Amino acid sequence: MHVVVTEFMDEAALERFGPKIRLTYDPGLVDDRARTLDAVGSAAAIIVRNRTQVNRDLLDAAPDLRVVGRLGVGLDNINLDACESRGISVFPATGANTASVAEYVIGAAMALTRGAFGATAQMIAGDWPRGALGQGGEIAGRRLGLIGYGGIARAVAGLARNLGMSVAAHDPHLQADDPAWADTKRCSVDELLAGSDIVSLHVPLTPQTANLIDGAAIATMKPGTILINTARGGIVDEGAVAAALRSGHLAGAALDVFAEEPLSAETGAKFAGLSNLILTPHIAGVTAPANSRVSHMTVENVLRALQDL
Question: Is the whole model's pTM more than 0.85, yes or no?
């Protein structure tokens, strides 16, 4: 059987496939669609991250495909209906990068609330901005609002409570009597946006969540709110976020995902000059330990599925 890996992963995990599996590991495939379509021609399984589009175009090029392993949890780059119609199993690495994302969210919340970590160049130059940097805040006593309350959001909530925060969440797919609500305020999106000091997004990109956080939504937030998006690009109107940061309505923002990935110089220009902003290249769930966990889980998922064929 042939397994094709189109994006980077922990190479040590690939050893688990052993000599009976023909393996094509080429992280450069994600940036060369023609080579990708050629590579999957005889593949029984493919392993991808978030950039490889597993759409009808790819599925048509892979007549023997039976398994898709996802190095992560988001599935918006995979045509699930087309996979189901072909009898192709899709396996996300559920839970493997939860701690990584949760720590990113809390770290960004702390850094943006304190506002004290951007003075290195000034200090080296001999400045001593103690007065300005001594005006930062603390996250203890603040309310964290989570849009989406699945496994990652609940891990964020646990860390937040340990740091003295209160937690509110919105998740229409979670029943009101679910035990997860025991120590979390259940509320509507409007209530959450209006009442939270820090808003973190944990929903997939769907027609219902596209541009969920637009200019109108941001206007309903309290002045001084911090916004964090580690979910998916397209959920947030990036131009509206930049405008709200410039006006001061948002005190800060951390964006790890973007409508266009990789973010280009042209699309990134809207953020130029903003000091109360953290931008990262879709790596909230990618740390060395998380990459190892995600990679090993994905290989095991794919192997188990192939053995059942």
Answer: yes
